Amino acid sequence: MSVRTLFSIKDLENLSGVKAHTIRIWEKRYNLLQPARTDTNIRQYDLENLKRLLNVTFLYEEGYKISKIAKLTEEEIVEIIQDSSEEKRDHYSLQAFKTAMFDFDYRLFTETYNALLKEKSFEETFLEIFIPLLNEIGMLWHTGTIDPVHERFISELIKQKLIMNIHEAQSKLKEGINPSFALYLPSEEIHELGLLFANYLILSRGMQTIYLGNNIPLTNLTHLLKHYNKITFLSYFTVKPDNVTVEEYIDAYKNEIGNINNYQLWLMGHKIQGLTLDPKSKGVTYVYSLKALRDKLSKSNHK
Description:
Elements: H1 9-16, H2 20-30, E1 36-37, E2 43-44, H3 47-61, H4 66-69, H5 74-82, H6 86-103, H7 106-117, H8 122-142, H9 148-171, E3 179-184, H10 193-204, E4 208-213, H11 218-225, E5 232-236, H12 246-257, E6 265-268, E7 284-286, H13 290-298
Parallel strand pairs: 3-4, 3-5, 5-6, 6-7
Antiparallel strand pairs: 1-2
Helix pairs in contact: 3-5, 3-6, 6-7, 6-8, 6-9, 8-9, 9-10, 10-13, 11-12
């Protein structure tokens, strides 16, 4: 499969948030971009044009006039951005991560990540930067603006950082404490980043976990009942299950597990958004976001 290196003006609109009409004006009036043309006279923009537009957009949204930006060299634009305030640097970090994605640039990703860690904790970086980035990348993938390999490149780098921080959190736990949570993804679910971060949040609060990973049938959970008298199962529904409703899944869980008081179920992810839990569903909790999980853990008595 070939990797996309040329983009339409609609792709640039999706990536930058600047309307195609405005991009055409900037291009014609200020010569900001230099697209190639197809045989049918359709604009095509390469990676350098895309990266320049992302930088220009950053300054424009910070109040710089486009006429002034047009007179700046690329080096001057980058220098202004790097001297921006912390809030603005967050915005620039998102742009830098997108640039790293298109160039498959591990070094740029790492430099941007390390710069963030000088001012933020890993938890703040994930919640404030990585989640908005992943949400935007997801939309770009669904609109066909980026290739699947771009999304996978960034996701795998973020996954690496998660695993490193999970390992560090585990190394700080007190010895001999029983697991409070068992984390898993339902059958055929493979979107793991949300569950990994949930694992990190729990571990960083001093609680032990059992991390089962993706594609776990309900019947497999019963093996843990032989070892632990009490544990909370936490699952993350992104696109699965799709053959039953969430409510039907909960019923199947109760039938399989039995003792819902000792083996509670916490559910997270896209599939539960907008759902309201039946008050009769004792032992089941909907956690609508990772920030909500963080807040809930701070009040938890699972330790």
